[in-house]
Structure formats: structure tokens, C-alpha cells
């Protein structure tokens, strides 16, 4: 999907998935703890916790680690993680959203300041960028998963809002409410998505020249590498 933080490019997606496990586990741990603190430890009643646990499984995090983090989150001694979003303008008027889970707001504020100082862009006010995005479920499926027409019918019946083909895979978009339902339907058909996440999907995309595109990529990849950053989304037309 153009405009999504994970570029429509196999090399980039593989580089992201090859990051050190320790860093990935750290981010998933924060998500599990934050989900439990907000919605409790009952996975059936806590959709955010279900999603975090699925991420843990996809990253091959040991189940003992998951159980330990759920218990830790239920303890009164466990520090709280805050979920927040920074809104930035990149080069050429591109909007950038930075999803953050942190236990130190001053640290991430400093990190964002350093990012824009070193790689450009400016921090925008609340709502200045996010109004152009919607939270959606996004799934990327291998083209070998099923015949296109059959796959379209499968995800449509499960509640998908959009289905399309790009150069490398099929892309399915769902509402937040139907995200799990569509994933479950795929699982029942023995189809494992290459990616499945809740993402901020742009309503309008911005075309930029090559120089601005490369500058935006450098800024976005720097932001993605920050420990407190969970995900980065943009509306640059790729």
C-alpha cells in the first residue's frame, strides 16, 4: 500500500524483519504491558493484548516471556508505559505519524528533536497531520496463498473493506473491528499473512521529487530505529 510506513519493497521489509531480536522483543514487551495496564489480562476481552500476543508469536518470542510480562504488568510495582503520537511534516509537505510507547516522555521528546535536527522535518501540532489518516487493519498476503478470486471472496465475506494486488503480494484492508475476524478467516484457510497490523492509512497521498523522497526515507528510517518508537506512518506516494 503506497503511503504505508513499510515500503512496497521486499528488500526494505526484509531488513525490518531482520532487526535484532532483543529490540523487537523489547517493543513487544512494552505493548503487552501497556495493553494489560489499560484493558486487563483477559485476552478474550482485551483486543490490544490479543494483537500484542500475536506479534510475540510471529516474532518467535517464548511463551514463558509472554506469560511473565502479563504477570509483571498486573503488578502494582510495574512502571507505566504511555502511548502517544508525534505528528511531523517531512520534505515536500509529506505528513508523518510516529506511534510511541515509552516510560520516559522527556527522553522521546529529546529523541524526536534530535531526529528533526539531524534529518530535517518539523514537529506539527496535534491533529495537524493525523486528520489525513485513518486507523485500519492492513494484511499483506503471498500471491501463492490462493487464487485471487477465491481469496477476494474469502476476505470479503469476513468483512474486509478493500482488496488489491501490488507487484509482490495481495493487500487486504479492514476496519479495526473486523481485523481479527479477517485474520481468523485466513488462519482457518491455512493462510499466514506476511504482515498483519493495525496501521494509520492515509486518505490522501503526496507526490514528491526524488530528492525529497530520499530525505523523507532517511528521516523515517531514523525514527523507526528509536527504541520508544513502535511504528511510523506517512502519506508519501511511493
Structure description:
The chain is α+β, with helices and mostly antiparallel strands and 238 residues long. 42% of the residues lie in helices and 22% in strands. The chain contains eight helices and eight strands. The protein has helices at residues 10-17, 21-39, 47-58, 63-73, 105-119, 148-157, 179-188, 210-224; strands spanning 82-89, 95-102, 122-124, 133-142, 162-165, 169-174, 195-202, 229-234. Strands 3-1-2-8 form a four-stranded antiparallel β-sheet. Strands 5-6-4-7 form a four-stranded antiparallel β-sheet, with helices on one face. A hairpin with a 3-residue loop joins strand 5 and strand 6. 32% of the residues are buried.
Could you tell me the number of beta strands? 8
Which band does the percent of strand residues land in? Answer: 15-25%
What structural category arises from helix and sheet content?
alpha+beta
Radius of gyration: 18 Å
List the helices and strands and how they pair.
Layout: H1 10-17, H2 21-39, H3 47-58, H4 63-73, E1 82-89, E2 95-102, H5 105-119, E3 122-124, E4 133-142, H6 148-157, E5 162-165, E6 169-174, H7 179-188, E7 195-202, H8 210-224, E8 229-234
Antiparallel strand pairs: 1-2, 1-3, 2-8, 4-6, 4-7, 5-6
Helix pairs in contact: 2-3, 2-4, 5-8
Amino acid at each position: 500500500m503506497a503511503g504505508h510506513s513499510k515500503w512496497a519493497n521486499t528488500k526494505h521489509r526484509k531488513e525490518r524483519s531482520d532487526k535484532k531480536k532483543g529490540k523487537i522483543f523489547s517493543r513487544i514487551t512494552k505493548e503487552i504491558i501497556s495493553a494489560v495496564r489499560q484493558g486487563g489480562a483477559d485476552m478474550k476481552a482485551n483486543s490490544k493484548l490479543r494483537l500484542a500476543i500475536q506479534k510475540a508469536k510471529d516474532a518467535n518470542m517464548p511463551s514463558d516471556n509472554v506469560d511473565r510480562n502479563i504477570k509483571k504488568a498486573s503488578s502494582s510495582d510495574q512502571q507505566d508505559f504511555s502511548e502517544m503520537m508525534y505528528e511531523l511534516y517531512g520534505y515536500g509537505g509529506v505528513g508523518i505519524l510516529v506511534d510511541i510507547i515509552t516510560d520516559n516522555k522527556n527522553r522521546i521528546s529529546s529523541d524526536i528533536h534530535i531526529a528533526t535536527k539531524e534529518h530535517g522535518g518539523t514537529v506539527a501540532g496535534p491533529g495537524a497531520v493525523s486528520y489525513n489518516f485513518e486507523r485500519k487493519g492492513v494484511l499483506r498476503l503471498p500471491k501463492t496463498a490462493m487464487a485471487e478470486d477465491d481469496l477476494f471472496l474469502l476476505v470479503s465475506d469476513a468483512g474486509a473493506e478493500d482488496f488489491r494486488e501490488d507487484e509482490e503480494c495481495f493487500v487486504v484492508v479492514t476496519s479495526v473491528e473486523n481485523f481479527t475476524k479477517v485474520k481468523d478467516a485466513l488462519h482457518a484457510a491455512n493462510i499466514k499473512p506476511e504482515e498483519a497490523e493495525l496501521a494509520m492509512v492515509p486518505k490522501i497521498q503526496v507526490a514528491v521529487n526524488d530528492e525529497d523522497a530520499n530525505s523523507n526515507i532517511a528521516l523515517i528510517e531514523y525514527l523507526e530505529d528509536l527504541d520508544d518508537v513502535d511504528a511510523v506512518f506517512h502519506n508519501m506516494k511511493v
